[in-house]
Each structure stands twice: as structure tokens, then as C-alpha cells.
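Supplementary Note 3. Input sequence used for the single-chain structure prediction.
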Amino acid sequence: MLEQLSGATRLHIIVGDPIAQVKSPYGMTEAFDRAGLNAICVPAHVSPTHLGTWWQGTRLAQNIDGLIVTVPHKFACADFCDTLSDRAAFLGAVNVARRLKDGRWEGDMFDGLGYVQALKKNGCDPHGRQALLIGAGGAGSAIAHSLVMAGVSSLTIVDPQTERCQPLVDRLNTLKRGPVRAGLADATGFDLVINATPMGMKEGDPLPVPLQGLDRLAHAGCVITAPAISPWIAGARHIGCGTTTGADMFAQDRKSTRLNSSHIPLSRMPSSA
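The predicted structure, written as C-alpha cells, is reproduced below.
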């Protein structure tokens, strides 16, 4: 992968805080190499305090073609983009941005699409399911949107930051594609339960949902990529549930992208939440 590395190499940057947990720099650079592109993906550890200044700096570097956005910057970076896809505008969040020919940044959000694709690949079609989603952040909002569009029979959303939950619920209900409500972190009665929070990344984190009440026939999901098997996923597997991990989502995100020298791989780093 390093044979082409030179002053002509195009840069794609994944930005977050923290950033050490992400797996995408290797995976995306490998994908560029397979596509015959002289491009690499590198991490940038940027705090929320300095994000705006950092973003302005990306406008000055003419060899940066794309940005991948992970926690906690998905909402803030939507405000920094010059233009947004319809999906990103609806959610008010992005997980990718590409530089247009005129130098403007165009943002999009692919976390939800990637996760629904991963669910289906793992034998869980969301259509008709009673879904419980923990997390109304950037990744959670995108997954919620894609679950509704995929035809879940109902969606209940819980977030530790309760003030984030109801605005998302209200926005999704405008789609009129099935009931969306705020609820409690209780898996009883649900056959699809997804953790879209960072809970489980740090040792000692509580489970996003108590395992009590989780039916062995339910499907459990998680967006975390480090550890690869989160405590929530490990517990669900112990019960006998089918599961979909953050790594599964990342793999589907990469497959859903189209790479060229002027277009960022439109993927979620699911690393994030």
C-alpha cells in the first residue's frame, strides 16, 4: 500500500474524540489501494473546542479530498458543511464529507444504511420488527431513520441524554411510516434491540440495556468497534441471540461506497456512535 505514497497522495481524514479506537484508517487505505487510487486515510484527534478551527484548516489543504466523522462530531460537522444530502439535512448530522470541485464540502450520513445492510446480511430483516434503539446521537439518529424506512412495525428510542430523544422521535413521526416513541431501556417485548451509544467502549461501563427481558429469539446489535465484541453483544450471544456488531456495519459501509479520486468513501465509521 505504501509504494505510491508521495506528494501526490490524496488524503482522507477520520476525525473524532477519542480516535484511537477506530479501525478505518487501515481498512479505507486498503480499499483505496485495491481501487488503484493513490490515497490514504489518516486519523485526527480533535476536541470539540477546536473542531471549528480544525475544519477551517481542511479548507486550506488542497490535497484533502474527504472527511470521515465519528463521535462526538457528527452534529457539529453538519453545520460546517456547505451543502448536505437530503438524508443528512433531515438528521442534522453527517458521518462523511467530500470536497467538491469548487472547494465546498458536501456532507452525507451513511451510518443507518450500513447498519440495516449489516442486519440483513446477518439474517435480521428489520421489516415488521418491534425495535428498541438505545442512543439518539449521530449514529443512533441515522440508524433510527433507516429502521423506520426499512419498515419496522414500531420503534422505541431511549437516550441517556433524555433531551435528545423527543426531538428525534417527533422528526421521525413526520415520515408517517409507523409509530416512533420515546421509552425505557427495557428489552422486554422487543425482537430487535440495538445499542448506538459508546456504552461498552470503556471497562466498567454499564450495559445499555439490562439482559433481563431480552428474548433469545431477539436480535441484538451494537455500533461499537473496540472492543470488537462489546459486553452487550457478548451477553446477548450467551443468551442465544443473533447479533450484529459495529465491525459488521463498517464492512457494509465500505461495500456501499463508490471510490474515486475526488470522492470520499461515503462510509460510517462505525467506530462511532
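Residues 257-273 have pLDDT under 50 and may be disordered. Residues 138-150 form the longest helix (13 residues).
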